[in-house]
């Protein structure tokens, strides 16, 4: 019987693991801070509101429930955010023709223009931050981030974490 062994970890590899963990945690923290920042600044949309608009830009119309699921927000939160986006003229709501209980949301012309401009601005900044990495380095980074996503998805599938020391 052959056993599979993990190669010994060198100190530099351990340091690289630690650096990756710290960078990933920092990125998640920054995204959480963006999502949670004050939405009451006059004339400015929050990160979460942009996230809703980007979702509608990708697929429209969407029901309020589908939009909430995609944005990982509660339907009540999305309804409140949509109220503001409708008032600003970026989103319109209509009743579904198939089921009048369902509210469908879509971007208005000004909502599409806003997202097109915002996407250009975001993409310029994104590319500028990553411009000095080679195609191979970016592909490796994408593979690492995908592996991390898969790790967290597996944790979701596992259910509640078992207390330490349990089988």
Describe the model.
The protein is mainly α. The chain has a domain at 44-132: Orthogonal Bundle (Arc Repressor Mutant, subunit A), CATH 1.10.10.10. Helix content is 63%, strand content 7%. It contains six helices and three strands. The protein has helices at 11-36, 47-58, 64-71, 75-87, 109-130, 135-158; strands spanning 62-63, 91-95, 103-107. A three-stranded antiparallel beta sheet has the order 1-3-2. A hairpin with a 7-residue loop joins β2 (91-95) and β3. α2 crosses α3 (64-71). The longest helix is centred in the N-terminal third of the chain and has 26 residues, at 11-36. The chain is elongated, with a radius of gyration of 21 Å. It starts with 10 loop residues before the first helix and ends in a 9-residue tail after the last helix.
Quick recap of the structure?
This protein is mostly helical.
DSSP summary: helix tally: 6
Residues in helices, as a percent range? 55-70%
Q: CATH homologous superfamily of the domain at 44-132, by name?
A: Winged helix-like DNA-binding domain superfamily/Winged helix DNA-binding domain
Give the C-alpha Rg.
21 Å
Looking at the structure, what is the overall shape? elongated
SSE diagram, text form:
Layout: H1 11-36, H2 47-58, E1 62-63, H3 64-71, H4 75-87, E2 91-95, E3 103-107, H5 109-130, H6 135-158
Antiparallel strand pairs: 1-3, 2-3
Helix pairs in contact: 2-3, 3-4
Protein traits:
single chain, mainly alpha, Arc Repressor Mutant, subunit A, 3-stranded antiparallel β-sheet, about 5% strand, elongated
């Amino acid at each position: 019987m052959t056993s599979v062994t993990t190669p010994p970890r060198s100190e530099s590899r351990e340091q690289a693991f630690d650096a990756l963990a710290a960078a990933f945690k920092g990125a998640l923290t920054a995204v959480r801070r963006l999502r949670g920042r004050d939405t009451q600044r006059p004339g400015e949309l929050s990160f979460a509101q942009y996230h809703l608009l980007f979702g509608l830009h990708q697929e429209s119309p969407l029901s309020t429930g589908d939009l909430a699921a995609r944005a990982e927000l509660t339907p009540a939160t999305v309804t409140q955010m949509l109220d503001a986006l409708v008032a600003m003229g970026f989103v319109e709501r209509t009743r579904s023709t198939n089921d009048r209980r369902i509210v469908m949301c879509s971007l208005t012309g000004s909502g599409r223009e806003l997202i097109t401009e915002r996407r250009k601005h975001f993409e310029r900044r994104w590319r500028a931050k990553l411009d000095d990495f080679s195609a191979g380095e970016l592909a490796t980074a994408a593979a690492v981030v995908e592996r991390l996503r898969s790790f967290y998805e597996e944790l979701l599938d596992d259910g509640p974490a078992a207390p330490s020391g349990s089988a």
